[in-house]
Specification:
Helices cover 64% and strands 11% of the residues. The chain is built from 21 helices and 12 strands. The protein has helices at residues 12-46, 49-97, 101-107, 109-134, 136-151, 153-200, 202-207, 211-237, 239-263, 269-311, 372-378, 402-407, 423-428, 436-445, 449-454, 472-484, 502-515, 528-531, 551-557, 559-568, 571-574; strands at residues 332-339, 349-356, 361-366, 387-392, 395-396, 409-412, 421-422, 462-463, 490-494, 520-525, 536-541, 544-549. The structure holds adenosine-5'-diphosphate and magnesium ion. Adenosine-5'-diphosphate is lined by residues 105, 341, 344, 348, 366, 368-374.
C-alpha cells in the first residue's frame, strides 16, 4: 500500500488544499455545540430572545460555510483519487506491454484484467474516503475530546473507558477481514476467467451443448464469491452495532452523572447538551474511521496484487550497449538451442541447430506439439532460450534492442489476430506510414484482393471485434498482408496457410517467392505440399530435429518425414 503512495505525489498541492479546507471546517464544526449550549444556558434560561437570534444566526452562517468548504473538499478529493487511479492504470498497462510471454503465463490474462480494473477501483475508493474522512476523523475526535474535557474534565473520564473497547473491536474485525478480502479478489479472477472463456469460446460451448455445464460452472464461481463476500460483510456488520451500543451506553452514563452534577449546581443544562454532542461526534468519527480501516484492509489486498504486477521484472531486457542497431542481412542461425516453458518437465526444444539464409525458404514440418510454434516464437524473443543461442547476422539476438530485432521481422502467428477497425487499419498495423499503394500490393500478394474488393467498402470495410466477420482463411490472408506490408528482412509464417485451399496456397507461395526474393523465409506447415519445394526442410519430432535437407534427401534419410509424406501423398506423387 505505502509503495503506491508515490502515485499521489503529483497531487500534493491539491491534497494540502483539501486538507486545509477540512481543517478549517473542523474548527468551525467544533464551535457549533458550544454555541448551542450557550443558547440554552443564556438565551433560553435567561429569556433573551435577541441573544437566541444572534447566536442562532451565527450558527447558521458557520453551517453554510462548513457546507461550502465540504463541497470544495469533496470535489478535490474525487479528482485526486480519479487521477491517482488513472496514473496507476497507465503504469500497469505500460509495464504489461513490456512483459515477455513468460510473465503473461505467470499471472494469467484474466487476473491481469481484474488487477487493472477492479483492484485499482478499490484503491481509488480508499484514497477518496481517506482524503475525506481520514484527515477529519482523528482531528474531530481529538478536538471533541479536548472540548469535552474543557466542558467537564471529570465527566470526560467516561470516554477514556469506552475508547479502548471500540478500538479493540475494530482491530479484531479488520485482522480477520484481510485474508477474506484477498480471497475475494482471487475469486473475482476466477469468475472473470470463466466469463472470458465463455465469451471467446461461445461457438464451442453451443456446438457441444455445454450450455448447462457452463451455467453450472459460472454459478459455482458466482456463489463462491457471493458467500465469501457475505461472510466478510457479516463480520463487518457487527462492528457498527457494537460501536453504536458503546455510544449509547456512554450517553446514558453521561446523562446519569451529568444530571447529578446539574442537581448539585456544578453544571448547566446547555453544557451537558454540548458535552453529549461532543461525545456523539467523537464516537461517530471513530465509527467512520473503522469503516476506513475496513476499506484499507480490502485495498491492501488489492495493493499487493497491483504491486506484484508493477514489481515484476520482464526476463527479457534490452542490452545497455547493443551490438547492432539494424539488421541488414537476415541470416538466422540456431546454435544448440534448448528451451523449456517455465514449469514444464521436458524441454519443448532440444539442441536445435540450423541456419536459414536470405533468399531461401526454410520449411519446418512436424506433428502437433512437436515445438514448431515454440521455435518460431524464440526468434522475435517472446521467450529467451535456456542454453545455446540464436544469431541474426551473426549477432546474438539478446545483444540487440528488441525494437531493432522485431522491426526486421514479419510474423504471421499461428492463430491470426485482427483488431477492430477497417481492413486498411489492420494492414497498416504492420507499417504506420503504409500508402494505399503499399496496402493494395500486400493484399494482392496475399491473395486477398478478391474477397476484399468484393466487400462493400473494399479496404475500408470494418473488421468486427476478434475478426468474426471474415472467414478463417480470409483472416490468415489479411495477417499475411499485414506482415508483407512491412517488407521485412525476415518472414516467419507459423502454419499460416492451413486454412487456405491447395490452389490458393500454391498461388500465394508463388507470388510470395518473387516478392520476398531477398528475405529469409521460415514457413511452418503440417502440409507436405506446402514444404515440398523449400530449399531446406527441417523435420521436428518431440522438440528435436530428426532431419534437415530437401524433400528427396529426407525421403531417404528421415523416417518421421517419410511417414508424414506417405500419410498425405499417394505413391505416384511421392515418386
Ligand atoms: P506445435 O506448434 O509444433 O504444434 P508448440 O510449439 O505449440 O507445438 O508446442 C510444443 C510443446 O510446448 C507442446 O508440448 C506444448 O504443450 C508446450 N507448450 C506450448 N506453449 C506453451 C506454454 N505457453 N506454456 C507451457 N507449455 C507450452
Ligand atoms: Mg504450432
Amino acid at each position: 500500500m505505502s509503495k503506491l503512495l508515490k502515485f499521489l505525489k503529483p497531487y500534493r498541492v491539491a491534497i494540502l488544499t483539501a486538507s486545509g479546507l477540512i481543517f478549517i471546517q473542523i474548527i468551525l464544526e467544533l464551535l457549533l455545540p458550544t454555541l448551542m449550549g450557550s443558547i440554552i444556558d443564556i438565551g433560553v434560561a435567561g429569556g433573551d430572545t435577541a441573544y437566541i437570534f444572534k447566536t442562532g444566526g451565527l450558527m447558521m452562517l458557520i453551517a453554510s460555510i462548513v457546507i461550502l468548504l465540504a463541497i470544495i473538499s469533496i470535489y478535490l478529493s474525487s479528482r485526486i483519487s480519479m487521477a491517482f487511479a488513472r496514473d496507476i492504470r497507465g503504469e500497469i498497462f505500460k509495464k504489461v506491454e513490456n512483459f515477455s510471454l513468460n510473465e503473461f503465463d505467470k499471472i494469467g490474462t484474466s487476473s491481469l484484467i481484474t488487477r487493472t480494473t477492479n483492484d485499482i477501483t478499490q484503491l481509488q475508493q480508499v484514497v477518496m474516503m481517506s482524503l475525506r474522512i481520514m484527515a477529519r476523523a482523528p482531528m474531530i475526535t481529538i478536538g471533541s475530546i479536548i472540548m469535552a474535557v474543557y466542558k467537564n474534565a471529570r465527566l470526560s473520564l467516561i470516554i477514556i473507558f469506552v475508547l479502548p473497547v471500540i478500538m479493540l473491536t475494530v482491530l479484531i474485525v479488520t485482522k480477520k477481514g484481510v485474508p477474506l478480502f484477498r480471497s475475494i479478489q482471487i475469486k473475482l479472477d476466477k469468475l472473470n476467467q470463466i466469463l472470458r472463456e465463455n465469451l471467446m469460446g461461445v461457438r464451442v460451448v453451443r456446438a457441444f451443448n455445454r450450455i448447462d455445464y457452463e451455467k453450472e460452472r459460472f454459478r459455482e464461481a458466482n456463489e463462491d464469491i457471493t458467500n465469501t463476500t457475505i461472510k466478510v460483510n457479516k463480520m463487518m456488520a457487527t462492528m457498527m452495532p457494537a460501536i453504536t451500543l458503546a455510544l449509547n451506553f456512554t450517553i446514558i452514563a453521561v446523562i446519569w452523572y451529568g444530571s447529578i452534577n446539574i442537581d448539585r449546581g456544578a453544571m448547566q443544562v446547555g453544557d451537558l447538551m454540548a458535552f453529549i454532542q461532543y461525545v456523539i461526534q467523537s464516537m461517530f468519527y471513530i465509527a467512520m474511521l473503522s469503516m476506513i480501516f475496513i476499506m484499507i484492509s480490502r485495498a491492501s489486498a488489492s495493493a499487493t496484487r497491483i504491486n506484484e504486477v508493477l514489481d515484476m521484472e520482464s526476463d527479457i531486457k534490452d542490452p545497455e550497449n547493443p551490438d547492432i542497431t539494424e539488421i541488414k542481412d537476415g541470416t538466422i542461425q540456431f546454435k544448440n538451442v534448448t528451451f523449456s516453458y517455465s514449469g514444464a518437465e521436458e524441454p519443448a526444444l532440444k539442441n536445435i541447430s540450423f541456419t536459414a539464409k536470405p533468399g531461401e525458404v526454410t520449411a519446418i514440418i512436424g506433428g502437433t506439439g512437436s515445438g514448431k510454434s515454440t521455435l518460431i516464437n524464440l526468434i522475435p524473443r517472446f521467450y529467451d532460450v535456456d542454453s545455446g543461442s540464436i544469431l541474426i547476422d551473426g549477432i546474438d539476438i539478446r545483444k540487440m534492442k528488441q525494437k531493432a530485432l522485431r522491426d526486421a521481422i514479419g510474423l504471421v502467428p499461428q492463430g491470426s489476430v485482427l483488431f477492430t477497425g477497417t481492413i486498411a487499419d489492420n494492414i497498416k498495423y504492420g507499417k504506420d506510414f503504409a500508402t494505399g499503394e503499399d496496402i493494395g500490393h500486400a493484399i494482392e500478394i496475399a491473395q486477398a484482393e478478391g474477397f476484399v474488393l468484393s466487400m462493400k467498402k473494399g479496404f475500408d470495410s470494418i473488421i468486427a471485434q476478434g475478426g468474426t466477420n471474415v472467414s478463417g482463411g480470409q483472416k490468415q490472408r489479411l495477417s499475411i498482408a499485414r506482415a508483407l506490408v512491412r517488407k521485412p528482412k525476415i518472414y516467419l509464417f507459423d502454419d499460416s496457410f492451413s486454412a487456405l485451399d491447395f490452389k490458393t496456397d500454391a498461388k500465394l507461395r508463388s507470388a510470395l517467392k518473387d516478392e520476398v526474393a531477398e528475405s529469409t523465409l521460415i514457413i511452418v506447415s503440417q502440409r507436405v505440399s506446402t514444404v515440398i519445394d523449400a530449399d531446406q526442410i527441417i523435420v521436428l519430432d518431440r522438440g528435436a530435429i530428426c532431419g534437415i535437407g530437401v524433400h528427396r534427401e529426407l525421403l531417404k534419410t528421415c523416417n518421421v518425414y517419410r511417414e508424414i509424406v506417405s500419410s498425405q501423398l499417394s505413391e505416384e506423387e511421392i515418386a
